[in-house]
Design goal:
Elements: E1 9-14, E2 19-20, E3 26-27, H1 34-45, E4 49-55, E5 74-79, H2 82-93, E6 100-103, E7 110-112, E8 131-133, H3 137-144, E9 149-156, H4 161-175, E10 179-184, E11 188-189, E12 192-199, E13 204-210, H5 211-231
Parallel strand pairs: 1-4, 1-6, 4-5, 6-9, 9-10
Antiparallel strand pairs: 2-3, 7-8, 10-12, 11-12, 12-13
Helix pairs in contact: 1-5
Length: 232
């Protein structure tokens, strides 16, 4: 029996990114990549072809958890820094056609302005690091794949439901995404993951309480949108 995403190509980005201060020190963000991995497994179960771009140290999809061999349907690409990510998008993925893109990767908003190259001495009492804003990768993704169904993520801390939805919607408008998953860091504990799926009309498509329900809801939504386009 074929899945509802059989033959479809889906790009998923997942996990953390790094910005180097010197040869051995870096700043990063708090992301295990577990949600991205769960989403990828759900897409594979529905017979999609998945390209999974992940940060160093991130959890990756374990196809052994599925009931048949999906290894040929999964392409794994590891990156470390934002420069790596941009290079992969331009040099390896640019010519690919994707039906949907799920951008769960925790891309640093700021990265160290300079990498000293060597190792900064540890005998200083203070170390000042100047950081600069990084490019918005989701905007690059939208530019390269204007017709793909694009899902972004908005993570905040300690906001009310209405504030979270407002910021998520603003993010959707700025990035050109078709759907945004809005969540609070303090509502993510283990497999418990409270989130809202916000569409381009500022409506809540779904309210989820776990990584698996987020994954199911996203794949259901992608399937409906792709099939709708196919019918039209």
């Amino acid at each position: 029996m074929m899945g509802d995403l059989e033959g479809r190509n889906i790009l998923i980005t997942s996990g953390p990114t790094r910005g180097y201060i010197d040869a051995v020190r870096f700043i990063s963000n708090k992301s295990s990549g577990k949600l991205g991995s769960t989403i990828a497994l759900e897409a594979l179960k529905r017979d999609a072809r998945v390209t999974f771009v992940y940060g160093v140290g991130s959890i990756i999809p374990d196809v052994a958890l599925l009931d048949k061999d999906y290894i040929s349907s999964l392409t794994l690409i590891e990156i470390e820094t934002i420069d790596d990510l941009v290079a992969i998008i331009h040099e390896r993925l640019k010519e690919n056609l994707y039906d949907a893109i799920v951008h769960t990767m925790a891309v640093l908003d700021y990265t160290p302005e300079k990498n000293s190259g060597g190792k900064i001495t540890s005998n200083k009492d203070r170390l000042a690091v100047t950081c600069v804003r990084t490019p918005k990768i989701i905007k690059l993704i939208r530019k390269l794949w204007p017709h793909a169904f694009l899902i972004g993520f908005k993570l905040e801390v300690g906001l009310s439901r209405d504030e979270l939805i407002e910021r998520a919607y603003t993010s959707l408008l700025e990035s050109g995404a078709d759907l945004v998953v809005a969540n609070n860091q303090d509502e993510i504990v283990g497999d418990k993951h409270h989130a809202y799926l916000i569409n381009s009309r500022k409506e809540i498509e779904a309210e989820c309480d776990s990584k698996q329900t987020i994954s199911n809801s996203l794949m259901n939504f992608i399937s409906r949108q792709i099939n709708l386009v196919k019918i039209i």
